[in-house]
Amino acid sequence: MKTQHPRSGRARRPFRALTAVAGIAIAGLALAGCTGQGSGGGGASETDASGKVTLDFWNGFTGPDGPALQKVIDDFNASQDTVEVTANIMPWDTLYQKVLTSVASSDGPDIIAMSASRMPQFASQGLFMGVDDYYTDESHDSKALNQAAIDASVFDGVNYGVPVNYTPMMLYYNKDLFTAAGLDPEKPPTTWDEFAAMVPKLTVDQDGDGKPDQYAIAMGDHETVPIYPSLLWGTGGGIVSDDGKTSTLADPESLKALDFWVSLVRDQKATQIGMSGADADKLFQTGKAAMEIVGPWMTSGFDEAGLNYGLAKPPAGPTDPAVLADVVSMGLPANTSDEKKAAAYQFFAYWNSAEGQTTWADGSGFPPNRSDVADKVTSSPYPAIFGAQDVADDAKLLLPGIAQGGPILETVFTPALQRALNGEGSVQDIFTAASADVQSQLGK
Q1: Where are the transmembrane segments (predicted)?
Q2: How far is CA 233 from CA 71, 221, 321, 336, 395, in A?
Q3: How would residue 124 be classed by pLDDT, with cut points 50, 70 and 90?
């Protein structure tokens, strides 16, 4: 089973519907607070029969990296006798939908993991508790944590999360397919132009039916890591201005990138249109695509499939070599009791301790959140690859700190991209209209 990234599988319901449901959730939080029954999800009891504080940890680590997460949880539970964490694992899209209606209920979560880029959407609706005091408490040993991972969950000057992981995306490429195409298996594309030159050689239509049997790259266009939006950086473009106030989707720099990639996909069939992130993973894993840009959570799945693959930085655009990075953070419901908050902080500190991060990195392939444990990670080569300094230097978060970031991607960018890929209009017309919709979202 493949892990669906927190950026994939987003709730597909419109933002207005999400906001309406959030209103109900906020009302529930207020009621729970008034009746004295708010306890990190409103649970009637905060302890089990042994007297331990129990924490229900919702997350979406459903695939190859799930066992590594469970190992850290098991180690934490065994390390002390006051707190018991239980992982409640579900697909990320299910989690995002359930959070809105469950944070104030009796069966709601105590700890919630999600993409840090999604936290502003929920925090702006009053569903999360600020955790700045976690970082100011020196006993939590946060000084060695990746600062970008810490800052990723900040919204409106308040931090709402503690990092589970931070990672850039990398280019996976199938060395056997490169060799079969007459390409050097040790020389993946380093620029967009090099990539474009390889597309015809790596796209194979064996029966001549017009549908490739092998694609140059596997790229999902919905319910996936937002690779397409990040490609706008390559020409100096983007979706929203750095100050988060203005849509830049129709800027010439953004349209240049969109023209380049839409043409490669629509006209040269560089990838299959209409795939989710899970579909793209499967296409690469089964040897039907020569490349994929994705995170370290797929390393164990691809290794188990016996793929002969390499890893490299994604091809750099003509203006900016930026690499998409993403952070998964842990947050607390706004009605969390003091007892459960203290217990959660104890777990957060263990997760991000040298011991916890070494176990996590060795088991998952993610680079550790801490800068002082790299030499302790010895069981897997992947943390060093994904955490390499030249990759980290170009790593960049998409739409950080923007409350409407999720809805902009889900209800504006993704539908516009799909229309463009399916030839339902010109890139300029489609994304000029989409830019106006982005601006409307920013005004909410």
Answers
A1: none
A2: 37, 17, 8, 39, 11
A3: very high
The answer to whether 356 touches 373, Cβ cutoff 8 Å, is no
**Residue of 441, 443, 432 whose CA lies nearest to 14:** 441
Judged by average pLDDT, the poorest of 24-33, 210-219, 264-273, 342-351 is: 24-33
- Copy the structure tokens of residue 166: 């931070």
Dist CA 262 CA 283 (whole Å): 19
Residue with tokens 């990040």: 230
Position 106 scores a pLDDT of 65
Phi (first) and psi of residue 51, to 5 degrees: 90, 0
Cβ–Cβ < 8 Å for 382, 397: no
The DSSP result for 135-182, as a single string, is HH-GGG--TTB-HHHHHTTEETTEE--EEEEEEE-EEEEEHHHHHHTT
d(CA 290, CA 308): 11
Query: What is the C-alpha to C-alpha distance for residues 239 and 276, in angstroms, rounded to an integer?
Result: 21
Buried-state track 199-208, b at ≥16 Cβ within 10 A, e below 16? beebbbeeee
How much is the average pLDDT of 140-162? 96
Q: What is the pLDDT of residue 182?
A: 99
Q: What 3-state DSSP class applies to 106? A: coil
Paired tokens of 387 = 């955490």
Range(s) within the chain of domains with CATH label 3.40.190.10: 53-168+326-397, 170-325+401-443
Residue 242: partners with Cβ closer than 8 Å, 6 or more residues away? none
Calculate mean pLDDT across residues 326-347.
97
Place of tokens 């409106």: 156
What are the CA-CA distances from residue 225 to residues 7, 108, 311, 324 (Å)?
5, 27, 17, 9
Burial class (CB in 10 A: 0-12, 13-18, 19+), 243: exposed
What architecture is the 53-168+326-397 domain classified under in CATH? 3-Layer(aba) Sandwich (3.40)
Q: By the 8 A CB rule, do 205 and 211 touch?
A: yes
Summarize pLDDT for 19-78 with one digit per residue, the tens. 444 443 444 443 333 333 333 444 445 776 778 999 999 999 987 889 999 999 999 999
Token pair in block for residue 21? 């449901």
CATH-assigned architecture of domain 170-325+401-443: 3-Layer(aba) Sandwich (3.40)
